[in-house]
Amino acid sequence: MAAHVWPLYGLRVTTPRLELRLPDLETLAELAGVAADGVHDGASMPFTVPWTDASPEERGRGTFQHVLRTVAEWSPRAWTLSLAVRCEGKVVGRQDLTASDFAVTREAETGSWLGLAHHGRGIGTEMRAAVLHLAFGGLGARWVMSAAMTDNPASLGVSRKLGYREDGVTVAAVRGEARTLRRLRLGREDWEAHRAVRVDVEGLEPCRELFGV
User: Fold this and answer.
1) What is the C-alpha R_g of the chain?
2) What total of structural domains would you count in the chain?
3) What is the domain extent for residue 56?
4) 184 CB contacts (<8 Å, ≥6 apart)?
5) Distances from the Cα of 1 to the Cαs of 7, 18, 97, 203, in angstroms?
6) N-acetyltransferase domain location, by residue (predicted)?
7) DSSP per residue over the chain, as a string?
8) Residue 70 is part of a domain; what is its CATH number?
């Protein structure tokens, strides 16, 4: 893709095992395939928007459209950076960083999913650590938020490992039922104290105006 037109295509975040990039069309097709193959046990629903309650074809197509939509709707006042995650060369999931009025609030929020075949390998922790480094070290965030269902110990465990503190609860209607989510908040000092993964960021400078910084 033409990074000189849309500099975010030149942004690259890496850890010892992972590479996170805004996907070009070929990579986006791979990401759609991972979503189609399954993201979680069908007996549970870890997302407030139950986008995985669909056929494999619809999940893949929805993933493809979602990422393109984040590019089309981007503005410095409201943006979602939706990065494809590669582990040792293979697309395994998606890591998002979202913010509104970031230039003023210096707050962002993370969200992610990982292909079911890649669970249990520590990838979720490493890809979150990567995007946190981008937020705090690259963009100067003061706070990064997350949230997870109270019955989602894997996601909550990742947050605690990375230094997040509990920030109350909220209730969402999911599949027609009330579900409780635990809110989590990470400040710069706690991020610094819990950094355990080496992260490198390339191609950020041409993107700063797009982030509103």
Assistant:
1) 16
2) 1
3) 7-211
4) 145, 146, 147, 148, 156, 159, 164, 165, 166, 167
5) 10, 20, 21, 14
6) 18-187
7) --TTTSGGGG-EEE-SSEEEE---HHHHHHHHHHHHH-SS-TT----SS-TTSS-HHHHHHHHHHHHHHHHHT-BTTEEEEEEEEEETTEEEEEEEEEEESHHHH-EEEEEEEE-GGGTTSSHHHHHHHHHHHIIIIIT--SEEEEEEETT-HHHHHHHHHTT-EEEEEEEEEETTEEEEEEEEEEEHHHHHHH--S--EEES-GGGHHHHT-
8) 3.40.630.30
pTM over 0.85: yes
pLDDT of residue 56: 86
Q: What is the pLDDT of residues 154-189, one digit of tens each?
A: 888 889 999 999 989 989 888 888 988 899 999 999
Residue 85, domain member (yes or no):
yes
